[in-house]
Write a structure and sequence with these properties.
This protein has 10 helices and 11 strands. The protein has 2 domains: 110 residues, Rossmann fold, CATH 3.40.50; 119 residues, Rossmann fold (3-Layer(aba) Sandwich). It is elongated and about 55 Å long. By secondary structure, the chain is α/β, with parallel strands linked by helices. It has a 6-stranded mixed sheet with strand order 3-8-7-4-5-6, with helices on both faces. The chain has a 5-stranded parallel sheet with strand order 2-1-9-10-11, sandwiched between helices. The longest helix has 14 residues.
């Protein structure tokens, strides 16, 4: 049975469930940890922008999680409009009570989100984001003449203690690793500075693939988009 590593924070994992359904032995290990800045000035900046009529733009469901507590306290979420990067994030918005949610029909990445914003042209947007996010998405939004309020409301960091799976990964005991973010890529590079040739890397999208390339980590395949189904298809394509 082929063995797959998912380096990510603890929690529900649709990727793991789908890969196990396809017959893979899956290990999920928290190489990174997410810190939500619940009471920060940054969260208040996002809330103030939404109160003033900005649309909520989410490049990840974690962006919603990072402001959710303040959101329910300050606003009627049913009156908000949200642009979500993909179906998982869109579903999280609807589950939170946001009724007007728009997401791409395909290209579930920031490029697809930009195309959606170019089509709908909201006057202003509020973007809760990670401290590790690139600024290029925000610059592209501003180029569309959209007023942008962006604030770092959560952070994703490499864990301090070595993950349990790291020695096995260094020894080449995994057939593949699924990398969903630049933060996960950097965490892997920290604990596995010399990548084992036997272990294939599956990147969740072009942005993550670029980070991996910059770290000299060889990407075997990049999934069509960041959905769990596409990632499972990508793993199956290289491992059978």
């Amino acid at each position: 049975m082929k063995r797959i590593l998912l380096p990510r924070p603890a929690g529900d994992d649709v990727d793991a469930a789908l890969l196990r359904e396809r017959g893979f032995d899956v290990v999920s290990d928290p190489y990174i940890a997410v810190q939500f800045l619940d009471d920060s000035v940054a969260v208040q900046q996002i809330i103030d922008a939404l109160r003033a009529g900005a649309a909520l733009v989410l490049t990840s469901s974690r962006g919603l999680q990072s402001i959710e507590k303040a959101l329910f306290t300050a606003l009627d979420v049913a009156q908000l409009r949200a642009f979500a990067v993909g179906p998982t994030t869109a579903a999280a918005c609807r589950a939170a009570g946001i009724r007007d949610v728009v997401s791409p029909d395909s290209r579930f990445n920031t490029q697809g989100l930009l195309e959606l914003l170019a089509e709908h042209r909201p006057t202003s947007i509020a973007v809760p984001r990670s401290g590790a996010s690139a600024d290029s998405f925000l610059s592209s939004c501003q180029a569309l003449d959209i007023a942008v309020t962006a604030a770092v409301t959560y952070d994703t960091r490499t864990v301090q203690a070595e993950p349990v799976s790291a020695p096995a990964l260094r020894a080449g005991a995994f057939d593949a690793v699924v990398v969903r973010s630049g933060s996960a890529a950097r965490a892997l590079a920290h604990f596995v500075p010399q990548w084992p040739r036997e272990t294939k890397i599956v990147a969740s999208g072009e942005a993550t693939a670029r980070v991996l390339a910059g770290l000299a980590m060889p990407v075997a395949i990049t999934s069509q988009d960041s959905t769990s189904f596409s990632l499972a298809d990508a793993v199956a394509a290289i491992l059978g």
